[in-house]
Design brief:
heterotrimer, A mainly alpha (about 350), B mainly alpha (about 290), C alpha/beta (about 250), A: about 350 residues, mainly alpha, ABC transporter involved in vitamin B12 uptake, BtuC, two-stranded antiparallel ribbon, 16 helices, globular, disordered C terminus, B: about 290 residues, 2 strands
Chain lengths: ~350, ~290, ~250
């Protein structure tokens, strides 16, 4: 029982801010104190962390698990590459790419909300595969399996390190916005939709509209991640949006912890670690990742970050003397209820 | 015209393979509410197993028996050892099958490598038939024929047997079925194992028709999903009709406008979603 | 004499060959405390489902506050001022009691689309939530996730959810089911303390509760109305006694 925890418990906001700042500082320091290898790991974590966070808004908070989220990532990256190859400047191309993602999300969202939540998974799987198939077949536009090159990064961030810091800034800004959204009244309604859609309707909510907005907003942030990826990789190919990648995003979000937002970053770190570090030691890193994932599903359903957060909160409750909550709802009756019972007899 | 006829027959044999895969997928979903993400991987690994058995023994008969049986055993293990622990929780069930798919496909890559492999049809089917103006390989007709036979058998089981009635009732109303004192758990296992068996069989046949390659699992799983969305969740008739639609369309599209082949799948899916979201044969209360 | 708040004319619902609700006609006056009773399977919950829109009618008219609502989906009827609770309490399990009630309060407000400020920032909603929670004795449980509550508390949250939207009419489906005697006393006091302008329609089996809260009763049996009138009248009605006590039964 460390004496530090009660002190932290008394100032939750300061603690959270402190943790966030520490994390940001660590990310800032990576290029300064390590080499290219770790920089590329950190860069991947930033980009895919943003992608996973965007999926968490949809899957974790609204309860709509999308197996095709990479499609929105891919649309902005491909449109960016295509327009740059046809003369547009990097920033213009990025904006056009984002607009394209937003437009597709607005269209597909209409379909997506027409199915029950469980069929949503299958529909998004189909959408993701269709996007992948298009990327492979429509060679005139997408370059097919050869993909498209991205000619250059925006002029103010030519080098890898400059670019890394730029993406870090984008991540922090997006994370703040997403955090605001999930903490807002609208964010609360999304959790309500996830927990009990029908009750939401009888309370007066137009549930379909909320799902639609969540779909489009999360697609937008995925699109931003796609732009970051395109400029990082300077190349875009269909393999980045194949089924395995779609599944990996879901894996990231879940392994970190659905509905926690920061868990998605943690999950992204875990998957990137498996991918970049473990792959050095064995070509079967995906098998290990799959096993790790299965174990998480069976034994740590809240995810790594989610479980840690839950355990810490329980500990803090115990330390601050609040009565423990029995999951079955049995608890000691406060004195006045006891008096009532006796009087009634 | 001959081209069209050939493509139609290709589409039908493909529809046959698709039906074998989708029927299991839709029944597993309809009854157990599990989106079995490992279904495509079962198809692929089934095909690979058949390939290896054929390469080792030269007997197609052995291959076409061993592969589905092996997948059925795998399905049994998956259902009893893993899925049972999280029964009734839709998100974890989905994610678990996804994790299993990951492991299966990666191990398959390690064992069989990345080059496309084919499961050669048995010698006596390797000739062609003259049908009017075209010559068409008999083995492809046999695939379609086998799928039809199995479809009829499945239909019979669902409509005429007690287990089948329980399955159909369970698709419509799970709580009611278990409230009637029926051992729903055992029916779940039967359905899951049967689905895996059919997926394995589809893999053997698909291995001849389409070749086996990394990524083949998700390609065909996506098509299965479209079949089920069009046909309706949990309905065998939906899998039949949906397989015809998707199989034929996919083939025509690949033949006549390959770049936009995937759009051809999109179109019927959109139509169904806009006009009848529960699928052609689906009930609104899914 | 003002128009009734709720008016049902020939409301019917069939499920295939089964007629669950048959030709139900009744009026509920403004500010009334109206009970709906009947044996199990009489169609009471189905009737509620038809009234609030969770289920569509097979025939008949439903007017709420003078408006024909038969074709309106549940969220539109909620917007007109209808609120209901359920036999099995429907709450938001992973959300705290406070968050549950905030959702109840936001349902009909435009703020529900606000994306940039915290939902805690609205002090008026916060106050409304705390007051409503207080009326149900839930003030100590506001920060507990709903899934950790006892059965009785969940029932209270269910009722609070309906009340916090400040409805014109409250439909209560067996609010006392599963409650301990002490909790029933608490419920009775709560119901008696509800504002007079609020119209309350209640399905209940607990006749003590019905007697102490309700002024008019409609009795349903096999989906049809067999009696409809003031509490004392209905209790004395021969048909009603037969239904509850059987032909050879004695009071």
């Amino acid at each position: 029982m460390r004496p530090v925890l009660p002190a932290l418990a008394r100032h939750p906001r300061a603690t959270r801010a402190g943790l966030a700042i520490t994390a940001i500082v660590v990310f800032i320091l990576v290029p300064q104190v390590t080499n290219d290898f770790y920089l590329s790991i950190a860069q991947s974590v930033v980009i895919f962390g943003l992608l996973a966070m965007s999926l968490d808004m949809l899957a974790g908070y609204t309860g709509l698990v999308s197996l095709g989220h990479a499609a929105f990532f891919g649309i902005s990256a491909y449109v960016l590459a295509y327009t740059m190859n046809h003369g547009a400047g990097p920033l213009t191309a990025a904006l056009i790419g984002l607009a394209a993602t937003l437009a597709m999300a607005a269209l597909l969202g209409v379909l997506a909300i027409r199915v029950k939540s469980i069929a949503f998974v299958m529909l998004t799987l189909a959408i993701g595969q269709i996007a992948f198939g298009l990327a492979v077949r429509w060679t005139d536009v997408t370059g097919g399996d050869n993909g498209l090159a991205v000619p250059s990064r925006p002029s103010f961030v030519p080098g890898a390190i400059d670019y890394y810091y730029a993406t870090l800034v984008v991540l922090v800004v997006c994370a703040i916005v997403m955090r605001l959204i999930v903490g807002s009244p609208f964010g609360l309604t999304l959790r309500g939709v996830r927990d009990n859609e029908e009750r939401m309707r009888s309370l007066g909510y137009t549930v379909a509209l909320h799902k639609y907005l969540a779909f489009v907003i999360s697609a937008f942030f995925a699109g931003i991640a796609g732009v970051l990826f395109a400029f990082f990789n300077l190349y875009m190919s269909p393999s980045a949006i194949d089924f395995q990648h779609n599944a990996l995003i879901v894996l990231m979000t879940f392994t970190g912890g659905l509905g926690t937002l920061w868990g998605a970053l943690v999950g992204s770190g875990i998957v990137v670690f498996f991918q970049q570090w473990l792959s050095i030691h064995t070509p079967r890193w995906i098998t290990f990742l799959g096993i790790f994932f299965i174990l998480t599903v069976l034994f740590a359903r809240r995810g790594v970050y989610g479980s840690a957060r839950y355990a810490i909160r329980r500990r803090l409750d115990q330390l601050s003397g609040r009565p423990p909550l029995d999951r079955h709802g049995v608890h000691a009756l406060p004195q006045e209820d006891v008096a009532l019972q006796e009087a009634d007899v | 015209m001959t081209e069209f006829l050939t493509q139609t027959l290709n589409g039908l044999s493909f529809a046959g393979v698709l039906f074998l895969l989708s029927s299991g997928f839709t029944l597993i979903f309809g009854l157990m509410r599990i989106v079995n993400m490992a279904h495509g991987a079962t198809y692929l690994v089934g095909g690979y197993v058949a390939y290896s058995v054929l390469a080792a023994t030269g007997s197609y008969l052995l291959a076409i028996i061993a592969a589905p049986v092996a997948m059925a055993v795998l399905g049994l293990l998956l259902e009893r050892v893993l899925l049972q622990r999280i029964r009734g929780l839709p998100e974890p069930e989905l994610l678990l099958t996804m994790g299993v798919a990951f492991v299966m496909t990666d191990l398959a890559l390690g064992i069989w490598g990345g080059d496309p492999l084919t499961v050669q049809s048995p010698g006596f089917l390797r000739s062609s038939l003259h049908l009017g103006s075209i010559t068409y390989p008999i083995d492809r007709l046999a695939i379609f024929g086998l799928a039809v036979l199995i479809g009829v058998a499945l239909y019979y089981v669902l409509v005429r047997t007690r287990t089948g009635a329980i399955i159909r009732a369970g698709v419509d109303d799970r709580e009611m079925v278990s409230a009637l004192g029926i051992n729903v758990g055992r029916v779940f296992t039967i359905v899951f194992v049967a689905g895996a068996l059919l997926a394995g069989l589809a893999g053997v046949l698909g291995g001849g028709l389409l070749t086996l390659y990394p990524g083949g699992d998700s390609d065909i799983l996506a098509l299965s999903v479209v079949v089920v969305i069009i046909g309706g969740l949990g309905k065998l008739e939906g899998a039949i009709v949906g397989s015809f639609v998707v199989g034929l369309l996919n083939n025509y599209a690949n033949a006549y406008f390959p770049e936009f082949a995937y759009f051809s799948l999109f179109a019927p899916m959109i139509v169904v979603l806009l006009w009848r979201p529960q699928g052609l044969f689906g009930s609104a209360a899914v | 004499m003002s128009a009734p708040v709720l008016s049902l004319r020939g409301v019917t619902r069939r499920f295939g060959g089964v007629t669950a609700v048959s030709d139900v006609t009744l009026d509920v006056e403004s500010g009334a405390r109206h009970g709906i009773i009947g044996p199990n399977g009489a169609g009471k919950t189905t009737l509620f489902n038809l009234i609030n829109g969770d289920l569509g009618t097979s025939g008949g008219a439903i007017d709420f506050l003078g408006q024909d609502v038969v074709k309106l989906p549940p969220h539109r009827r909620a917007a007109l001022g209808m609120a209901r609770t359920y036999q099995i309490a429907r709450t938001f399990p992973t959300l705290t009691v406070r968050e549950n009630l905030v959702l109840g309060a936001l349902g009909l407000r435009r703020e529900k689309y606000g994306m940039l400020r915290s939902w805690r920032a609205r002090r008026d909603i916060g106050a409304l939530v705390e007051t409503t929670a207080g009326r149900l004795g839930l003030e100590d449980r506001l920060d507990v996730p709903a899934e950790d509550l006892s059965h009785g508390e969940l029932r209270e949250v269910d009722i609070a959810l309906a009340l916090v939207s400040e409805p014109r009419m409250l439909l209560l489906d067996e609010p006392a089911a599963g409650l301990s005697p002490a909790e029933r006393v608490h419920l009775r006091d709560l119901l008696r303390a509800l504002p007079g302008e609020l119209t309350v329609v209640m399905i209940e089996h607990d006749m003590d509760l019905v007697r102490s809260v309700v002024d008019r009763i409609t009795v349903l049996h096999f989906g049809t109305v067999v009696a409809d009138g003031e509490t004392a009248e209905v209790q004395a009605d021969e048909n009603v006694r037969e239904i509850y006590l059987g032909r050879s039964g004695r009071a």
